[in-house]
Amino acid sequence: MTTQTIRFIRRGQTVALGNVPPDRTLLQALREDLGACGTKEGCGEGDCGACTVVLAEPENGRLRFRAINSCIRLAHSVNGMALWTVEDLAQADGSLHPAQEAMVQCHGSQCGFCTPGFVMSLFGMYQNSVCQGQAISRSDAQEALSGNLCRCTGYRPILDAAQQMEQLPTVRIDETALLQHLEQLALIRSAAEPDFAYKSPRSLDELTAARAAYPGAQIVAGCTDVGLWVTKMHKHFDRVLDVTQVAELRQIEPHANYLQIGAAVTLQDAYAALVADRPQLQNFANRFAGLPVRNSGTLGGNVANGSPIGDSMPLLIALGASVVLANTHGTRELPLEDLYTGYRTNVMGADEVLAWIKVPRPNGDFMRVYKISKRFDDDISAVCLAINLSITDGNVTRASIGAGGVAATPVRALQTEAALAGQPWTLATAQAAAAALRAEFQPISDMRASAAYRNEVLGNLLQRFWLESQGQTQINLAHFDVEACV
């Protein structure tokens, strides 16, 4: 099999890389093929942010900038995009970009290893905020830098730098010229031969045909998990099928009774749509990994992956979401929890792909989702619990509960739902349901938590849910103002 030449724009010029294996990471291509060694290799799993670069592609006639982790992103996935590394920011006369100059002025670097990643996250934020005339708040800066770890300088001067950027003379990219350049690349891409080792279909028909023709190909989206199979497990893929350019799967379609989210929609955009319907999900959405992971990863990828500690699925189960699977013969729909048959196994046929996730619109239910992890930001859940209750005249008329981290798959708490349905919503009912929830699962002990801890936490979270339903807020860390408490 042959590989398509990768073409992307860097420093205003088209970069062409040939003979790149389908499973080669973007970080490898940058450091080893292009000599762009300013981008660092740290954890190799999208956790530390030292490898952060920024991508841009057209969206609704404008450029959309995204900071992403290059260590787990496959090189072929940036074909047809614009890319910036830390070496690309300084001006022709040597003057620093505001993202760099602000770090200097605010003393935001010490050992310097993490600095390129922080600068690139700041650059992405600068393009999406300052260049769009938007001010940067402290909370905005914290979210933009949530995927970057610093182990020596501390975050205060780096957050200062984020806000300092907008005080410096504005530096703009010529978006009109860049959009035209990207359009030219798109013409080359559309004329490419179809049978390459790395296939990136543009339509659902092309995707299902490719899936039928190559059932053994590794399906990828943002590679926020599959990328670790390459970097940590040293897996190799002879053929890769990338779903992220399929037009139908990149759309979010609002309907009267449900929201239809394409499987290739990024986690960042998918959660933004869910939060627009349910503002109480904002804190949970921000805690789903760091921003670079949310900028690459997709909702469909998280669901299809089926990890028992994937945070999207407990939420979607509690919301009553369904999935639509597609092949060359058509589509079929099933409840999301029925997708899984065991640990990372599912009912999808060898010729099927996950196409859409359908999420019912809000109907006045009281809903909360809780993530328990060792770090507040950018961490994997020990337990994730989503609870959605319909309460009428003081009685629970419907209960829907999704749980993660407590079984081999994301699961629905059917026994606990049954214990709640038809009962008066009182403290006694909540305590009985908490006991039922603790008894419903047999979680394992691992590096994140013991089985006993997980069982105890499940019940505690249901009792927290009761307290929040009664109007208490200070029991939730998300409601604390840290600066005000200092």
Please count the beta strands (DSSP E, at least 2 residues each).
19
Individual helix count: 17
Q: Please tell me what the overall shape is.
A: globular
Q: Strands of the biggest beta sheet: in what spatial order? A: 9-10-15-11-12
Percentage of residues in strands: 15-25%
**Amount of helix:** 25-40%
Question: What features would you describe in this structure?
Answer:
The protein has 486 residues and is an alpha+beta fold. It is built from 17 helices and 19 strands. Strand 17 (383-392) and strand 18 (395-404) form a beta hairpin. Helix 2 crosses helix 3 (115-128). It is globular and about 70 Å long. The N and C termini lie far apart (61 Å).
List the helices and strands and how they pair.
Blueprint: E1 6-10, E2 13-17, H1 26-33, E3 52-59, E4 62-69, E5 82-84, H2 98-105, H3 115-128, H4 138-144, H5 156-164, H6 175-190, E6 198-199, H7 204-213, E7 218-220, H8 226-231, E8 240-242, E9 252-254, E10 258-262, H9 267-277, H10 282-286, H11 291-296, H12 299-305, H13 312-318, E11 322-327, E12 330-335, E13 340-342, E14 345-346, E15 353-360, E16 366-372, E17 383-392, E18 395-404, E19 411-412, H14 414-420, H15 427-440, H16 451-469, H17 482-485
Parallel strand pairs: 6-8, 7-8
Antiparallel strand pairs: 1-2, 3-4, 3-5, 9-10, 10-15, 11-12, 11-15, 13-14, 16-17, 17-18, 18-19
